[in-house]
Each structure stands twice: as structure tokens, then as C-alpha cells.
Amino acid sequence: MQFPLMFALTGTVQGWVLWWLWRSFEDKAWPATEPMLLTGLLYAALAVPLVIYFTQNVEHLPRTARRAAVALYALLYAALGAGAAWAAGVTGVATGVRFTDGLAALVLGFVSLGLLCGFDFEARRWRYERLFHYAWRNGILLATAWAMVGIVWLVLFAGAGLMSLIGVTWVMEMIRKPVFIFPVTGLVAAGAFALGLARASMTETIRRFTLSISAWLLPLVLFFAVLWVLALPYTGLDPLFRTRSAALMMLAFTALAVAFANCAYQDGEQPWPYPAWLSRATQLAWLALVVVAGVAWWALGLRVAQHGWSEDRLWAALVATQASVYAVGYALSWFRPERWMRAMAPTNIAAALLLCVSLLVYLAPPTHVRRVAVAAHLAHVQQKQGQQEPDWVYLRWDSGRFGREALQAMAAGQGVPAGQAWAQQAARLQAQTSRYDQRPQVLMSEQQLQEKFRVYPPGRSLPQSFLRYAQGQHQPWELQRCYKSKDNCPVWLGDLNGDGQDELLLFVNGWNGTVFMPAGDGWRQAGNFRAPGATGKFDPAQLEGAQRVAPLWQDLQVQGQRLRIQLNN
Fold first, then answer.
1. Residue 522 forms beta bridges with which residues?
2. Which among 2, 80, 93, 151 counts the fewest CB atoms within 10 Å?
3. Cβ–Cβ under 8 Å, residues 228 and 246
4. Rounded Cα distance, 105 and 169, in Å
């Protein structure tokens, strides 16, 4: 069978399978009633056609190896999908797939297929020139297919809109039906892959043009890397760490340098991509990336030491590991000067293998990244002995079954430090059915509330009635923000309206905040306050000397209405 016909058949079958899964989801029928089965079939339906497309026209790939690869990837992605649904702990008609799950599966498939296409089955080793060629070819094909699908649908909607202008609306109604959307999208994507493979010279031209232009950005990137390293002794690391995103920025910079280095190296056949002096200078300048990767690890380590491991930091650790492999591996080229960046090819292969293994470990149920994140987070907050609250939102809504199991254990009193209300909070969160539930997400005892609020003037304390109000079912977001803050919340007590009772001013964001006043036996939110045109940073300690002053402008009452003057800054 000619591959364009095979691609058309594959895309059509994929579209109908996706429509069937969507229909069962809408009708709440089998297999949608089995989340693990539904997600496994969804992953397999998306992955298998890509395996067929990416392994087409791969020289030296035995037919038996290709068929085995299709079957293996079908099983692997069905297992990954089922594992994603299991980790999410969803019940009923749902998949529970998160963005990170899908992205990790996509990266795993793309990188591993590149390794498959670049493997020499006769010599039983990888040939980097093949790996480079097919990885870039498949990347361009995938981007072209996405673009083609978008363009076709743009044309379809434009044409249907044009027909609607003269009263012919059935075209618009037809293209909006899922039974049309899924098969057509699958067929168009298959056609885009087939066209790209049939016009191999087109993808080759796109690749060469893109890489040739991008290669000349590497010297600029490395210039900034060297400049940054040379400036470090004079600036120190404090300005960097104060950004609270140091690791992210340095890892992104390293990724940019790696990408441009590969654009210059390409398949390694060209010994010197730049003039001799510039080639040697870039090879030497790459040593600065080792420092960048090392400081990124340092910044990440400081965040872990302060706040413990989280899911985001575990993913950052994986990225930092990859960045370190690239930085150190490429730097070894300095000791092999006969060719430019001679160590790049083996480093890329080693990094790709490491990435595939790492992603499998991160997604496998026994070592799932969210399982590890939840365990590490709870171990960290338990070591703090009540000085740090668990991340309740993450445990309840973002960590799948692992967080909910942890909440269940805490509700039973397991791992709860003495004097903490974690058991009650965990039980309350378990009862919530929506992450946007208005009930408070943090529960505190009266003693904890007294410690949380810094009351001014000195010597005053929060009234018992306000403490009961602060523990109530319905609270304004300002109080919830205060509870979740790591710092104490400044409040000022005093009579501002002359009724003989104290009002409470809660400073939420610098000069801005909210006002609470007594209401019967309880309290209510009376309004907000702010300081228009305020200069300088708000210092809560200055509330010790706060004074009541008369308003600059009095209100004017007309027909029973008070006109309040708002001055320009």
C-alpha cells in the first residue's frame, strides 16, 4: 500500500475513534464510565498515528522493527494514559489528565521516536547524523501538520460564514458537528504529513534556512553568558536570588544556548561552522554555561531548603539535570580541539536517553512525580512543627489521589503536629466538592489567630467576638489572604465613627485594606480603605503612632444623599 493511502486510512480511523470516545464521554456510556480505560484509549489513539507518520521513509529501519514499534507504543501510551487517570484518582466520567501529563507524554514520544529512527540496527549503535536528520524532519512535519489543520479550519469557517450571509446555514451547522470535526481533522493532519514526506526537499530547505540563521545567534548568547560570569564577583548573587525566579531564568537561558549550539553543529559534518577564531572562542565561552547551570542548581537548592520540594521543583530538578548534562558535556569539547564541539553528538544522545528514562520514572505510578511531591511536602511541613501550613489547595485539588490520601490520613490524626488544627482542616477539605467552595480553606485556633494578627496600638488584643467571626463559615477574601500569608497581618483597633465601639482595620496590601465593624453579637465587613498617592513603602510598625484626624473635606448632604469628595492625587 502506498504511504499516502495508508496515511489517509490512518487519519480517518483516528478521527472516528476520537469521535467515538468523545461521544461516549458526552453520553456517559462505556468506555467513558471507566476513566482508566477511556484515558488509555485516548492516549493510544493520539500516539499510534504519530508513530506511523514519524517512522515512514526511515532508511535502514527494518519493517519488523517498525511494526514492533507501533505495537509497543500503542501499549506504552495506553499504559501511560491509564496511569494518568489512576494518579488523578478520578471517578465517574472523566479523564483527569493534566497539562504536565500530556506534555511529558508528548516529549517522551518525540524524543524516543527520534532515537528509534537514528538507531543502526546492523551496527547496534546510534548514528548521530541519522538522529539529527529524522528528529528535525519529524519536528517540521509536526509543526506543518498543526499549521495545515489550523488553515483548513480557517478556510472552512470562512466559507461557511460566507454561505450564511445568503441564508445557507446548513454548512456552518455541519462543520460544527463533532461527527464532522474529528474525522476531517484526522484526515487533514494525515494529508499534511503525507505531503511533507512526499516533498522531502521542502522540509530540508526549511531546516537548512532555519538552522543557518539561528546558528549566528549562538555567539551573542555566549557573549552574554561570559559577561554574566565576569560580572558575578562584583555584583554577587543577592540581586539574582531576590528575583525569586533565578533558577527559571538561568535554565531558560541554558536551553536557549543549547538550541542555538545545535543549530550551529547540525549533523556534525561541518568541522568549523564559523571562522576559526570565532569557532574556538565559542568553544571556550561555553565553559561559562557550566557556571550558569551550577548557579541554577544553587538557586533551586535554596528554594528547596526554605520551602521543601514541590511538584514544580521536581520538574525543575529534571530540567536542571538535563541542563547540567548539556553544559558539562558540551564543555568537554574544549579538550578535543580537532573538531568544533566534538562532544556534542554523544552528549545529545546521552541526554536524550536520560530524559526518556526520567520521564518514565516521573510518570510511572510507583514513582509518580505527584506521589513524591506530596510525600516530600508533608515531610517538610511536619519538620517545621506547625510553623508552616500544608499547601491545602494543592493537596485537595492539584495532586490527585496522592493528596487526597494524605488528607484522609491527616483527618484521622496521622502526622499532625501537637496543637495544630490540621485534622479538622483536612476533614473539611475532604467534604468540599469544588475548589471554589466559599468555605474557608484554612482553620485556626483562637491562639493561632492571636499570633497571626499583629494588633496596634500595642497592648491591645483582638476581641473574642472578632475571633469567633474569623473562624466562621463565610469570610471575605482579605481574611483568607491573611491566613495564607507567611507574615503576620497588621491590624489597627480604634473608634473611627464615634459610636463608642472599636472598628478594626486590616492592612492587606501595603497601604490598602478592609474595615470591619461590630454588628450585634458579631462583626461584618464595613468597607475598604486606601491611601491615594501614597509614597514610600508601608511600615506596619508606624501604626504604633497612628492618630485619628478629621477629614480634609466634609461631606455634603443633598436630599438625604451624602456627596463625598474624591480629591485628585
1. 519
2. 2
3. no
4. 40
